[in-house]
Design goal:
Length: 273
């Protein structure tokens, strides 16, 4: 498994917003970073960083609450290796898998397990159930087979379960990518009611042209505004000449790079104060 882990170290991306941190993975063929929708929710831009990628703000280009999928634009002119999507229909109970990601904001972990079931259904989607240990922060990371292919996107866990995780099958991901790319570089949001993809290039209204349900386009998402102690801390960060947007690591954490030094800032809000 070591060659597989070494390969995925290069393409597994840490994603950070003012609300959360999570994982994504880079698909060179499409120049897209794949992650979960709930990782990037309510953000037009997110901070991405990896072993082969210096930290930068990248735009969210696809939001899909139905499949809990999101795509972030990949870095231009990079030397990252290529990974491939496998055929999730070939996955069977007992198959050995790796879950790769950044749990709890850590920089990289890989855990091995086996597929328990391919028949777990939730909202008419058959997820891959496996026992490779995943934790908060692993969301959006790849589930990988022994051929180094992505067979799923780790999406959720049972909070009280013993290493019970679920991944969206790669065949669904492939279909979503192909559907998104049909309209070039237009931002896209999937309507949660009729499941059709709505492209901003063709529709600027707040309603789905197919069913009339209200939707929020990516370009209509409001910029985050800090408040209270967060605002005070970010003002201090600005005064010292650092970029606040780049430094955010969830609601209570910031990370600043000063030459070779990594400065971590955090605070805790006491309840009932």
């Amino acid at each position: 498994m070591k060659p597989i882990i070494d390969l995925y170290k290069e393409v597994v991306i840490q994603i950070a917003t003012p609300f959360a941190v999570g994982t994504g993975f880079y698909l060179k063929k499409y120049n897209l970073i794949v992650t979960n929708e709930h990782v990037v929710r309510n953000n037009r831009f997110v901070v991405v960083e990896g072993i082969g990628i210096d930290r930068f703000l990248s735009p969210v280009v696809y939001l899909d609450n139905s499949y809990d999928l999101a795509f972030v634009k990949g870095p231009e002119n990079n030397n990252l290796p290529e990974i491939f999507l496998g055929d999730s229909q070939l996955v069977e109970a007992g198959s050995v898998v790796l879950a790769v990601g950044h749990p709890f904001g850590l920089k990289f972990t890989a855990t091995q397990g086996i597929v328990s079931s391919t028949l777990h259904k939730q909202e008419d989607i058959s997820f891959i159930q496996h026992d490779a240990a995943i934790n908060p922060g692993n969301s959006g990371g790849p589930l990988v087979n022994i051929n180094a292919e992505v067979i799923g996107v780790n999406t959720f866990i049972f909070r009280d379960g013993q290493s019970i995780g679920f991944a969206l099958p790669s065949n669904i991901l492939r279909i979503c990518i192909e559907e998104f790319l049909k309209h070039g570089d237009s931002l896209a949001t999937r309507c949660s009611t009729c499941k059709n993809l709505v492209f901003e290039k063709n529709n600027q209204e707040k309603y789905c042209p197919n069913c009339g349900s209200e939707i929020t386009h990516i370009s209509q998402i409001q910029d985050y505004e800090a408040f209270g102690m967060r605002k005070d801390l970010e003002e201090i960060i600005k005064e010292f000449g650092y970029e606040v947007e780049i430094s955010r690591r969830g609601p209570y954490h910031w990370e600043i790079q000063n030459e070779s030094a990594r400065i971590l800032i955090s605070y805790h809000e006491e309840s009932g104060m």
